[in-house]
Amino acid sequence: MARFKIGVMVDSFRLPIPEGVRKARAVGADGMQVYVVEGAMKAETLSAGARSAFKALVAECGLEISALCGDLGGHGFQIAAENDTKIRRSKAVVDLAVDLGTAVVTTHIGVIPATDDDPVFRNQLAVCQELGAYATARGVCFAIETGPDGRIYWCNLYN
Q: Which SS3 state, helix, strand or coil, does residue 25 take?
């Protein structure tokens, strides 16, 4: 029987990140996802030295980084006026994924409207196309969740 790998959201342990990584190993996880939009792991402010130290800690614990969570909260990419900042921040998360050697970034984009002529849908699609293209060029999959319906898509497929 095949053994499936088990991963954890390291932030769920509610410990400082280094302790959370060690806890992930202690509970038998194979990999982990880490939230990188706030706090100690914020993509835009994490120094090169801190990136190297985190990557070394993960390797020392025998874990893999299965994904980075770049969820910017709220309503995702539904409000066009907020998206320049959210796109810039999301690209920083993709860049961090490259530096840390993981190939997946996840985020929530908000609930997708029922029709593709809805301005919110058109806006979400444009953002996903831009971020999907950026991620693809960097060798990263930009995976999205839509909201409470729990659907998951790979933005790279929209390109």
A: helix
Closest CA to 142 of 159, 120, 123, 119: 159
Interatomic CA distance for residues 65 and 103, integer angstroms: 9
> Model confidence over 6-38: pLDDT tens digits?
899 999 999 999 999 999 999 999 999 999 999
Secondary structure string (H, E, C) spanning 70-137: CCCCCCCCCCHHHHHHHHHHHHHHHHHHHHHCCCEEEEECCCCCCCCCCHHHHHHHHHHHHHHHHHHH
Burial class (CB in 10 A: 0-12, 13-18, 19+), 88: exposed
By the 8 A CB rule, do 34 and 17 touch? yes
Global pTM? 0.89
For the stretch 73-101, pLDDT in tens is: 878 899 999 999 999 999 999 999 999 99
The whole-angstrom separation of Cα 108 and Cα 141 is 14
Q: Which residues pair with 141 in a beta bridge?
A: 104
